[in-house]
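sorry for the late reply, my laptop died twice this morning and i had to redo everyting from scratch. anyway the thing you sent over, i finally got around to it. pasting the sequence first so we're on the same page, its 123 residues, then the predicted structure underneath. double check i copied it right bc i was rushing
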Amino acid sequence: MKKSFHSITGIAALLSLGGFAVGCGGVGTAQADLRNAIDARQTTLNECYREALTRDESLSGDLHLRVAMAKSATSISGVEVTESNVDDPLLVACVTGALEGLSIDEAPKSALTVDYTVRFTPR
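ok and here's the structure:
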């Protein structure tokens, strides 16, 4: 199992993404493709956070997500918040909404789950 951490810097925020993927074997390149698809949404996630900072300029915290793909599917089948200390339901909804519907080119041969931590830190 691989664990990866990614960070991006926004105009008013630092948003860190850390991922941990779990599969049941036979996931092929789907695991890496799913992480890459989530990483590709960094700009959108940063926009969610910038909007949240207009409501609370000191907003920070970690949002732990579980992203799932069903066997032989190319689109995310679910995004679940497994833990959060982010006190902004609109930010949480924006982040989960940004990830719902993501798709990858090659479907996994078995169900795939990726756990991601999104860390919000104002500058």
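The chain is about 30% helix and 35% strand.
thats about all i looked at so far, will dig more tmrw
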